[in-house]
Write a structure and sequence with these properties.
Blueprint (H helix, E strand, L loop, with lengths): L5 H30 L5 H13 L2 H12 L4 H10 L7 H25 L3 H9 L4 H12 L1 H16 L3 H7 L9 H10 L3 H30 L10
Helix pairs in contact: 1-5, 1-8, 1-10, 2-5, 3-5, 3-9, 5-8, 5-9, 6-7, 8-11, 10-11
Length: 230
């Protein structure tokens, strides 16, 4: 039996698109949450990280209700643009983006909070605007956290199962990502297909963890205790 590569290709497409969406939202939101204090901040932050602790099936059910044909967002998209999200690749992308968002958000927020505010204040005294400070001071200093969040979000998107199954379903060649293909190949008794996909997922996950640990140690050892470059 020939091996089906479509779940791998589809998973990568979904993960890339999901991470692009996550980056666009996570960085500005994390910056706002790190820099501003306001009433109800704890509640907002809890909502932003809720997909991290909720079962994926619960997240998928909420998304299905929201983006379904009669859901508030799904109905609006259908009436205005004729767009359907459920059982499409867009459903898989949205599901992956929602469940991976907290990974990127928490990493970026922690990194931005670790930036010395005196450095940003010094840039202001030199006449730099807030946008320039953000891109030339804050982001470069928080870069390690941003990269770590990006990689973790990509890995989480690639491995998303429950929410994707609820919102996008399992349509071969259209919404059947690697986790879904593994499950249904196992159910169908196609152990060869399942084991190959499992091996790819395990190898990728190992490389992500190993790479982040190795990269983090390298960054941590780049300076000596006296401040000199190693």
């Amino acid at each position: 039996m020939d091996f089906n590569f479509s779940p791998i290709i589809l998973s990568v497409k979904v993960a890339v698109a999901a991470v692009v969406i996550v980056v666009c939202f996570a960085i500005p939101i994390a910056t706002l949450m790190a820099k501003r204090q306001f009433t109800g901040k704890a509640v907002v932050e809890s909502l932003l990280t809720l997909p991290l602790v909720l079962p994926p099936s619960v997240v998928g059910f909420v998304l299905l209700y929201t983006f379904g044909k009669n859901g508030p967002v799904g109905k609006l998209l259908g009436e205005l643009f004729g767009v359907t999200v459920v059982f499409t690749i867009w459903g898989a992308i949205i599901a992956a983006a929602v469940v991976s968002f907290p990974m990127m958000y928490q990493s970026v927020k922690a990194a931005i909070e670790s930036v010395d505010p005196q450095l940003e204040k010094a840039a202001r005294t030199l006449g730099a605007g807030e946008l320039r400070i953000f891109f030339t001071v804050t982001i470069p200093l928080a870069w390690n956290g941003c990269v770590a969040g990006f990689v973790l979000a990509f890995a989480r998107s690639l491995g998303e199962f429950g929410a994707t199954l609820m919102l996008a379903g399992n349509i071969p060649g259209k919404t059947s990502t690697m986790p879904l293909a593994i499950y249904f190949a196992s159910e169908a008794g196609d152990a060869r297909q399942a084991w190959i996909l499992v091996s790819i997922m395990v190898l990728f996950s190992f490389l992500v963890i190993f790479g982040l640990n190795h990269w983090g140690k390298g960054k941590g050892n780049s300076t000596k205790p006296d401040g000199r470059i190693a």
